[in-house]
Design brief:
Layout lengths: L2 E5 L4 E5 L3 H29 L5 H45 L7 H4 L20 H30 L5 H4 L14 E4 L2 E4 L6 E4 L2 E4 L5 E3 L4 E7 L7 E8 L2 E11 L6 E2 L4 E5 L9 E8 L2 E3 L11 H18 L2 H5 L3 E2 L1
Antiparallel strand pairs: 1-2, 3-6, 4-5, 6-13, 7-12, 8-9, 8-11, 9-10, 10-12, 10-13, 10-15, 13-14
Helix pairs in contact: 2-4
């Protein structure tokens, strides 16, 4: 539509047509001015006055909300980690120790941690990688909790047989404690080696006695090994009592048991001798607990009444005669 202007000659208003080029120019000028005003407004609003744009305000609020959730999760993970560590200490130092079970190695408790970075897609989302570190912590605690639960299952299974533990601990002398029949010739600890004369750790008790003195199992268990050797311990028997305990009877003259045989406390298992590296007839007796050789004197009482010990042995003989298997009654006795 044209624009009305006054013609001074005719004194009449006439329509003056505006060119398309002029219209486009004015439109572009108006658009450019509007953009410039908007940019100026945003600059003044954000840089001069220090305000955030509405969308920025919304995003910051969302970020703060998720930050708070991650902080809360890490706080809870801290508590869970402390609780899990307390359970680990109680498991290793109390429960597993009571039942003679080995501690779970750190490598097993941390099994599966590390390796492929499955949270690689979270790299760079934050300068401190809090989200990724939180996800990794959650995975680590989940795996450690699983291992701990399996450990408690194992302890529970062993605890169901805890009533047998009293009879399995090697708590009696391996020989009849009649002072007229033996002499304690060497104790647990460092001593002068009878062959070399140098100081050497002696890992058991030596009972000097005549060849052929009966040797008895000091606790219930299973015969783990029977060895017949010319050197070292000579003829020897090792019994696994469970709950972390084993006993070793060495320098024997003859052996009355075979590997895999179940024995009870007071069972006649061998005769004393002087086989192997021995300076004279004696019984060498060891107690092993969780893989470490310990002082047998801490487990047996050599002052046990002789008649009480003899009565226990006779009772086991009667029980063996009525309940032993044909294998136990018929195997050949080996000696040297």
């Amino acid at each position: 539509m044209g624009k009305y202007i006054l013609n001074p000659e005719t004194l009449l208003y006439e329509i003056k047509e505006v060119s398309l080029k002029s219209k486009v120019f004015k439109g572009l000028l108006l658009f450019a001015g509007s953009v410039a005003m908007a940019i100026l407004y945003i600059w003044l609003f954000t840089s001069v006055l220090g305000y955030d744009l509405p969308k920025t305000v919304f995003l910051k609020a969302e970020h703060a909300r998720w930050d708070a959730k991650i902080d809360l999760m890490n706080t809870k993970l801290d508590r869970y980690a402390e609780t899990l560590d307390a359970l680990r200490v109680r498991d290793d130092d109390i429960y597993r120790s009571i039942f003679g079970m080995n501690e779970i190695p750190a490598g097993v408790r941390d099994a599966g941690i590390g390796g492929v970075d499955k949270y690689e897609f979270l790299n760079g989302l934050e300068s401190d990688d809090r989200l990724k570190n939180t996800a990794l912590r959650l995975d680590r605690l989940t795996r450690q909790t699983y291992v701990q639960s399996k450990s408690f299952d194992e302890v529970t299974s062993v605890s169901k047989t805890a009533g047998d533990m009293v009879s399995c601990i090697p708590a009696i002398p391996p020989i009849n404690p009649d002072p007229s029949k033996y002499r304690l010739s060497s104790r647990f600890g460092y001593r002068s080696d009878p062959f070399t004369g140098s100081a050497k750790m002696h890992t058991g008790l030596d009972f000097a006695m005549k060849i052929g003195n009966p040797v008895y199992a000091t606790g219930d268990g299973v015969v783990e090994s029977v060895k017949f050797e010319f050197f070292g311990y000579g003829n020897s028997v090792t019994i696994d009592h469970g709950f972390g305990y084993k006993t070793i009877y060495a320098h024997l003259n003859s052996v009355k048991v075979i590997e895999g045989m179940k024995v009870k406390r007071g069972d006649y298992i061998a005769d004393s001798g002087k086989s192997g590296r021995s300076s004279g007839p004696h019984l060498h007796y060891e107690v092993v607990y969780k893989g470490q050789k310990v002082n047998p004197a801490n487990y047996l009482d050599m002052s046990m009444p002789v008649d009480e010990y003899s009565a226990m042995v006779k009772m086991r003989e009667r029980e063996s005669m009525t309940s032993s298997s044909p294998m136990r009654r018929s195997f050949s006795v080996r000696s040297r």
